[in-house]
Amino acid sequence: MPVCLFTIVLALTLTACEKKEVASQGPPGPAGPPGGTVIRFVDGECRQTCTLACEANERILNTFAIGPGGTFIFEEGNLATFLPQRRGASAKVVLVCAQK
Fold first, then answer.
1. pLDDT tens sequence across 11-26
2. Tally of CB atoms within 10 A around 100
């Protein structure tokens, strides 16, 4: 019964709505600032210790490894070294870089 009552009230509410007239579009405004932050992904396969880096005008936003885990060591703000948990096991390593 509550579902039927809700449906009837919804139908009456929708029929009570009227279309509003849309005003015409005015002249375009001034151009805004350039788009937001650019995010770039650097990836590679590591079977042993390896280093990944963002560009000089970028900073590290995030890092992660797919496969056997490991540890990341961050250096100089845009450089990361990955130390795999097991040598010889392949891990896909991803570094996420964002413009400063």
1. 666 565 666 677 788 8
2. 12
